[in-house]
Amino acid sequence: MERAFLALGGNRGDVHSAFDRAIAMLCATADVRLVARSSEYRTPPWGVVDQPAFRNAVIEVATLLSPHELLSRALSCERALGRDRAYERRWGPRPIDIDILAYDDVELHEAELTLPHPHLFERAFVLVPLAEIAPDRVIAGVRVRDAAARIDATGIDKISAS
Description:
The protein is of the alpha+beta class and 162 residues long.
């Protein structure tokens, strides 16, 4: 099985429950298994700042799915939990967001999927929870712990243990 890291985020509705439901849907079949789940963090909005704070977490999964199949499942989970990407503002409020941060050592640069995630090392809201569960993981030649230590994590507060 391959290992993948997925970021979960949201700032509308009961986000904690949405995370639980998303993880259950992602791992509903034997081809995706939860390996680790970070704590949840309250984080300031990124991109569009005039909106409520977000709740963010990161999970690690073991999977038999390809990167594209995993993305398809993540997008299906988002839709099932009330997200409609076609009608929302980019980086705006949403009930759930699921992004693939990294999939083993795969590098992809395609219109529908870029791996590792193109903004991974710019976003404390994913680096902090990722460093909690995989501090020694190397992604694109960078140790997660080192990337998290270099980024400004002001305003990021742990709100629940994994």
